[in-house]
């Protein structure tokens, strides 16, 4: 509905959803000379309700998810450094990433395979080296370590806010606190209906994260939203967990997966569960809350890995992320060329956000992207889904 006092706005490219990928797409688009760009975000700038919330994210180059992602990770790392430089603030914490598990744990085997297949920098640590160099962890007798020196921590809220500030300084206009209600492709672009009037754009980039199914009906049968929790604990000696001594980590024992990051607040350490059995749902609106006994269950596991942690989470926060069935992201341009969709980022989405943003810009402006693997397209997703059916 357009109110009489709100004229229609005409732009070349509109980005809907200014979270992780949307902010990066806006930053990239802001560097294209002569392009009129509008960002539309239902909340404010770098709010706490997106999938990016939660102080830190992990960046890994020795990616157990496989070689498909390596060119993207290489691009992303370069861009994180570029964003950091342009913004004049620290975003990529270059602390390394440490994987801990037995030699035969599937995650460890897959990480080694990626390292060996692509000749990536690494250090393999045996049990005694691991105990000596990383005494913060309670290393079990069968545990070994893999250090990915290009691994890092990321500061997601700082990154999103920085990219948006830079985009706005370069001339991108933003509508904050403006929810998009519909995106309708037409003959000459796309009509975007918002609570504050209509916008017409040559192309709309839809990067609405866990809300994707509301504006992109074509992805509905391919995605689901999963509840994820983050938790922080207080160690006896915080000095051992500061960034200069404590890499981001992943720890796998059978089906239990934990990950975490060094202390950024000077009193607590992020130690969080990966795949505890939390309920998923087709849409964000249907997600139930965390179970009441979740904190206690978590504490019991955490103290097994970090004996000096106070077994009471000092912070426990609930988050959401949209997944596809095989955890491969969806990035595609519709046949009319008027909508670029980025959805179902399945845990890859923050470390690769600047690259997804760049691919979205390329698809919107050039119509094609050499960086975007065919596996990410809707057609490829449908083929894989049909093969499994
Ligand atoms: C707990 C947790 C831990 C994670 N750990 C990692 C990690 O270590 N490394 C990693 O790479 N990834 C990680 N991920 C995944 C990563 O954070 C996500 O993949 C990524 O943030 C998703 O980005 P997005 O742009 O798709 O969504 P978001 O960042 O959520 O952005 C979507 C934006 O769209 C806006 N929006 C939605 N609907 C509308 C509308 N109708 N109108 C206007 N605006 C709208 C939202 O308000 C939001 O700002 C983790 C995720 C979670 C939840």
Write structural notes for this entry.
The chain has 389 residues and is α+β, with helices and mostly antiparallel strands. It folds into two domains: 9-52 and 157-221 and 326-388, FAD/NAD(P)-binding domain; 95-149 and 224-324, D-Amino Acid Oxidase, subunit A, domain 2 (D-Amino Acid Oxidase, Chain A, domain 2, 2-Layer Sandwich), CATH 3.30.9.10. The protein has helices spanning 20-29, 70-87, 106-118, 127-133, 156-169, 212-215, 294-305, 353-365, 378-388; strands spanning 9-16, 37-40, 57-59, 92-93, 97-102, 123-125, 143-148, 152-154, 173-175, 180-186, 189-194, 197-206, 223-233, 248-253, 256-261, 269-273, 280-281, 315-324, 330-333, 339-343. Strand 11 (189-194) and strand 12 (197-206) form a beta hairpin. Helix 2 crosses helix 8 (353-365). The structure holds flavin-adenine dinucleotide. Flavin-adenine dinucleotide binds next to helix 1, strand 3, helix 6, strand 13 and strand 18.
Provide a compact summary of the structure.
Pfam families: DAO. The protein is α+β, with helices and mostly antiparallel strands and 389 residues long.
Topology:
Blueprint: E1 9-16, H1 20-29, E2 37-40, E3 57-59, H2 70-87, E4 92-93, E5 97-102, H3 106-118, E6 123-125, H4 127-133, E7 143-148, E8 152-154, H5 156-169, E9 173-175, E10 180-186, E11 189-194, E12 197-206, H6 212-215, E13 223-233, E14 248-253, E15 256-261, E16 269-273, E17 280-281, H7 294-305, E18 315-324, E19 330-333, E20 339-343, H8 353-365, H9 378-388
Parallel strand pairs: 1-2, 1-12, 2-9, 5-14, 12-20
Antiparallel strand pairs: 3-8, 4-8, 5-7, 6-7, 10-11, 11-12, 13-16, 13-17, 13-18, 14-15, 15-16, 19-20
Bound molecules: flavin-adenine dinucleotide.
């Amino acid at each position: 509905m357009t109110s009489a006092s709100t004229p229609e706005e005409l732009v070349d490219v509109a980005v809907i959803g200014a979270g992780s990928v949307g902010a990066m797409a806006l930053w990239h688009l802001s560097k294209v000379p002569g392009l009129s760009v509008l960002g539309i975000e239902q909340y404010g700038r770098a709010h706490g309700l997106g999938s990016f919330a939660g102080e830190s994210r992990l960046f890994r180059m020795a990616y157990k998810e496989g070689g498909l992602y390596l060119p993207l990770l290489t691009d992303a790392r370069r861009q994180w450094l570029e964003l950091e430089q342009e913004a004049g603030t620290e975003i990529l914490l270059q602390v390394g990433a440490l994987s801990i598990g037995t030699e035969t744990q599937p995650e460890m085997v897959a990480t080694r395979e990626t390292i060996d297949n692509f000749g990536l920098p690494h250090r393999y640590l045996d049990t005694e080296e691991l105990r000596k160099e990383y005494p913060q962890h309670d290393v079990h007798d069968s545990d070994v370590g893999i250090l990915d020196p290009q691994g890092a921590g990321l500061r997601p809220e700082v990154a999103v806010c920085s990219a948006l500030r830079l985009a706005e300084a370069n001339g991108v206009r933003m509508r904050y606190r403006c929810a998009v209600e519909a995106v309708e492709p037409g003959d000459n672009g796309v009509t975007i209906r918002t609570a504050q009037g209509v916008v017409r754009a040559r192309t709309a980039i839809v990067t609405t994260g866990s809300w994707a199914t509301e504006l992109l009906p074509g992805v509905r049968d391919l995605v689901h939203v999963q509840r994820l929790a983050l938790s922080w604990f207080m160690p006896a000696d915080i000095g051992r967990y500061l960034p200069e001594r404590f890499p981001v980590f992943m720890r796998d024992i059978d089906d239990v997966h934990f990950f975490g990051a060094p202390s950024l607040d000077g009193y607590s350490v992020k130690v969080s569960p990966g795949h505890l059995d939390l309920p998923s749902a087709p849409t964000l609106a249907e997600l139930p809350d965390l179970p009441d006994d979740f904190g206690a269950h978590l504490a019991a596991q955490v103290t097994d890995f970090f004996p000096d942690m106070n077994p009471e989470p000092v912070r426990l926060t609930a988050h959401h992320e949209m997944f596809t069935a095989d955890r491969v992201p969806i990035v595609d341009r519709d046949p009319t060329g008027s909508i670029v969709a980025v959805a179902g980022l399945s845990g890859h989405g923050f470390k690769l956000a600047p690259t997804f943003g760049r691919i979205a810009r390329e698809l919107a402006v050039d119509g094609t992207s050499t960086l975007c693997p065919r596996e990410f397209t809707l057609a490829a997703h449908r083929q894989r889904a049909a093969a499994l059916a």
